[in-house]
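Class, study these two lines:
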Amino acid sequence: MLRDLGVSETVLETPDLSKHLIKNHDFKKFDSVLDLVGNSTVVDSLQLVRRDGRVCLAGWLGGLDPIKGPAGPDESRGFNPLLQMASGVHLSFFGSFVFGTEEFPVSDVPLRSIMLKVAEGKIDARPWRVFAFEDIHAAHQAMENGDSNGKMVVTVV
């Protein structure tokens, strides 16, 4: 699905991903990284993009703990862009929780365009599995076990 949208390469997150990729001498830094894990991985994501590359922090699946500072005695002081970002790398943040506010009205979301792409088959929006509300425990178990493979829907009737 991502390749159909123009993505040339995808890599699944793993601890210290940049170190694993950089070990491979053929590794070329990415143009862009979409970080859905969050504060616990964003500093590593910043190491994966080329000069003038972009990292968009758009999730917090890894929790909301503060971004850690550089390893060593100053780690607890927090994120330090001067020490933890390469010059020329762009970092942006996108949080869906701001939708509907005065600054980010829902009308700015291209829902019509997205739905047309779904209808045309350009975006596969099918959920991995649909659960009845009575089966919500099974949905949580699938999530916690890492068994899910995409979006899950719980119907409430």
The chain has a mean pLDDT of 85. The radius of gyration is 19 Å.
